[in-house]
Amino acid sequence: MISVDEALQLVLQHKMNLGTEEVPLLQAVGRVLAQEVTADRDLPPFDRVTMDGIAIKAQSFASGTRSFHIEKIQAAGSPQTALATAENCIEVMTGAMLPANTDAVVPYEVCEIQNQVATVLAAKVTSGQNIHRQGSDSTAGSILVSGGVTVTPAIIGTLASVGMHQAKVYRMPRVAICSTGDELVDVEQTPLPHQIRRSNAYVLAAALQEAKVPVSLCHLPDAPETMQQELAAILPQHEVLLLSGAVSKGKFDFLPQGLEKLGLATVFHKIAQKPGKPMLFGKLPEGKVVFGFPGNPVSTYVCFQLYFWPWLKASLGLKTQPQKAQLAQPISFPPALGYHVPVTLTNENGVLQALPVKTSGSGDLTSLYKADALLSLPADQDEFKAGESFPLTLL
Question: 153 vs 150, 164, 256, 359, CA distance in Å?
Fold first, then answer.
């Protein structure tokens, strides 16, 4: 049995080279960018008017001119015009090019316009006011977005601004999620007194779909030969197997043996932790990987969060920052196991406080939706004081 830290390091050592693909711009949201994005021209590409009003030469105002004859209007989207006389002005609209021979924009709110003459009511006009200067955001050729980041709507806007109708992103692995056990029936069925509905597979599938990972769902019966046959049929179409149940020492836990017959090289089987002690991780031919999670709902979800997500992020080149939170109340846990506690979080003066969620054990699925995170307590302590800080995994 290995430690929590050892298990995570072994998982990360087996990250997958997923390659890249190009997708239409709007399909890139939530994916991991696999390229640098550079400015194809200065941003903004011209001196841009930021308020509706009049464009003038600031020196004319400084010299005592307060009323300016309006020569013309400069609209947004129109070619640049030019001021012919320094004591005159041009009406300008937000987003328009700043007319040549002007260097200040006075908003309508501090102007009075009558008979094509704009009188400035402001006490002061400075050169450059209400102008978004060319290249002040970025210059042509500069890096706007680095690779290895999750594409957000704001990044989509940046890509659109430089004319990228497609984006290069890291390819997501094809994942099969398999529940096990004859006691499980599907969600639309009415369970008999000795049965329960499948839920673990749907929890994992929902999390992966939210991350744009393509998933398939399946269910494996408690019959070794049938289980092996169905796994053999699933493997060619998938690169990752997420298995829930049948990995412990029970009489019907046939998965480890079935996977070995399909070529599994076990990396580890059992972690000194609660929940999720029996977790299995291994490699299959062609570089495929298997995460075998214990069947209890909390165990499945905790192991998924602590080991699969870091593996996926590492495979996608995403960097993660370790986080910690302070325990809000003392906990006693004598077993020499890492203890992953579901917690709710509050922020007190910039410090995250983690309050344990009351739970009845690894089968208490409803406790998961109440939790914000997992607080991981080390195996070499049995008393954990309020105010101590421990590693945090946001859910």
Answer: 10, 14, 43, 37
Q: How many angstroms separate the CA atoms of 86 and 279, rounded? A: 78
Contact 181, 222 (CB under 8 A): yes
For residues 374 and 341, membership in a common domain is answered with yes
The whole domain housing 94 covers: 48-132
Q: Closest Cα to residue 23, out of 15, 8, 34, 12?
A: 34
Is 194 in the same domain as 333? no
Sequence-distant (≥ 6) Cβ neighbours of residue 208 within 8 angstroms: 175, 177, 215
- Counted domains in the chain: 4
Let me know: does 393 contact 305? Beta carbons within 8 Å: yes
Global pTM value = 0.84
Whether the predicted pLDDT of 368 surpasses 80: no
Q: Could you read off the pLDDT of 204-243 as tens digits, one per residue?
A: 999 999 999 999 999 888 788 888 899 999 999 999 999 9
The domain that contains 388 carries what CATH number?
2.40.340.10
Indicate the helix (H) or strand (E) that contains 208. Answer: helix 200-210
Residues in the chain: 395
What backbone phi and psi angles, to 5 degrees, belong to 289? -125, 155
Q: State how beta strands 143-145 and 37-38 pair.
A: antiparallel
Distance CA 378, CA 384 (A): 9
